[in-house]
């Protein structure tokens, strides 16, 4: 596993933990508090860095109170390889998950793994909990399976993972179906489950690791009136359907390039005309709208940590599994290409010793997040 490559944050975390108040000697009636932080990681799906403007709560509660990374990238901009890197601390060529589905990718490539982050943290005394999306194809063949290292497990299972309603959750080995009730909108469900977990685990003496994995802003059903034809969109919570009416696609230098003669033939796409552009604009707005429920969810998780007295002793990380291409280089609605829009991700971090309002510019990637968590938890990884 890589050592930390962003010394400002590494020093900050270590200093913050070292300066934590020392507990009195244990007595027969009380145990000293564990000085290590809780770890809460909130992961979105296919979110671009440029979309963070639509999430003011998250920026204020995590970024402004901690660090906002300017140059955070994933090493393989696909859902499953990126998440596998976070779980193992390894690059794709080492953990073996090269793409989202078999034979070169998907959950099947990591199934049976024991030597990874949740096991390291549990062995170090953490209570480990997963909520939401896991790895692609998880649950397709063994929906009641709970992967190694997790004390509590609330994961959506395929083929329902990419549904915002009418999905199935593996709840500690038991399958539970959720329907079309507005309360079951997947983002809100994951938020409610996560805040309840914080409230339940806060009184326990051991620290906890909570991995919250939202589906938004990934494409997902059901189809809704007003959705563009020919392009999937995320389902939006009813309360957010009218948000961002004037939002337009970011039009950077790479957007809808006039000259693509420098690209290999397999990568060349037609110029995006007015009709296709209108569809992309609609997708962009719905992606932003879907992030509003995530933004509210982050606020609720932070408030749960605050109300239970855990906020100041929690390392809170917000990140996306990869970015997304929305017209850059004429590539519409996709990722899996190592272009900036697909590989650069939002990364915000708040916690003990992380300087408030800091803006690190060092190049970091998703394997560094794993190393940071292991370091802060004083855990022992199964590989170096």
Overall description:
The chain is α/β, with parallel strands linked by helices. The protein has a single domain (36-377), classed as 3-Layer(aba) Sandwich (Alkaline Phosphatase, subunit A), CATH 3.40.720. 28% of the residues lie in helices and 15% in strands. The protein is built from nine helices and 13 strands. It has helices spanning 7-18, 56-63, 79-88, 92-95, 117-123, 186-201, 274-307, 340-343, 366-377, and strands at residues 38-44, 67-68, 72-73, 127-132, 152-156, 167-171, 174-178, 208-213, 314-320, 325-326, 332-334, 347-350, 364-365.
Key phrases:
single chain, 384 residues, alpha/beta, Alkaline Phosphatase, subunit A, 9-stranded mixed sheet, two-stranded parallel ribbon, 9 helices, 28% helix, 15% strand, globular, disordered N terminus
């Amino acid at each position: 596993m890589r050592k930390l490559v962003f010394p400002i944050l590494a020093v900050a975390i270590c200093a913050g933990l070292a300066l934590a108040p020392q507990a009195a000697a244990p007595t027969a009636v009380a145990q000293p508090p564990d000085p290590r932080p809780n770890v809460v990681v909130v992961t979105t799906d296919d979110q671009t860095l440029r979309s963070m403007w639509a999430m003011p709560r998250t920026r204020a509660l995590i970024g402004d109170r901690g660090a906002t990374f300017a140059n955070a990238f994933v090493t393989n901009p696909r859902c499953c390889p990126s998440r596998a890197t976070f779980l193992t601390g390894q690059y794709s060529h080492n953990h073996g998950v090269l793409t989202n589905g078999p034979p070169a990718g998907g959950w099947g490539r990591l199934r049976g793994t024991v030597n990874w982050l949740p096991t390291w943290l549990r062995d170090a005394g953490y209570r480990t909990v997963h909520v939401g999306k896991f790895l692609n194809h998880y649950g397709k063949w063994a929906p009641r399976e709970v992967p190694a290292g997790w004390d509590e497990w609330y994961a959506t299972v395929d083929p329902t993972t990419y549904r915002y309603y009418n999905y199935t959750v593996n709840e500690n080995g038991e399958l539970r179906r959720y329907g079309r009730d507005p309360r079951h909108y997947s983002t809100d469900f994951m938020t409610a489950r996560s805040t309840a977990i914080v409230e339940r685990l806060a009184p326990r003496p051991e620290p906890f690791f909570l991995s919250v994995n939202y589906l938004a802003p990934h494409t997902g059903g059901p189809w809704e009136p007003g959705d563009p034809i020919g392009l999937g969109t995320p389902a939006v919570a009813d309360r957010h359907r009218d948000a961002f009416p004037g939002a337009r696609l970011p039009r950077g230098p790479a957007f809808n390039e006039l000259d693509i003669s420098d690209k290999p033939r397999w990568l060349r796409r037609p110029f995006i005309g007015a009709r296709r552009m209108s569809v992309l604009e609609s997708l962009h707005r719905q992606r932003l709208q879907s992030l509003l429920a995530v933004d509210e969810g982050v606020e609720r998780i932070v408030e749960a940590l605050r109300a239970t007295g855990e906020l100041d002793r929690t390392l809170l990380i917000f990140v996306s599994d990869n970015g997304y291409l929305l017209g850059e280089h004429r590539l519409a609605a996709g990722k899996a290409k190592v272009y900036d829009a697909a590989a650069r991700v939002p990364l915000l971090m708040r916690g003990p010793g992380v300087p408030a309002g800091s803006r690190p510019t060092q190049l970091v990637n998703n394997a560094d997040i794993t190393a940071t968590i292991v370091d802060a938890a004083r855990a022992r990884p199964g590989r170096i």
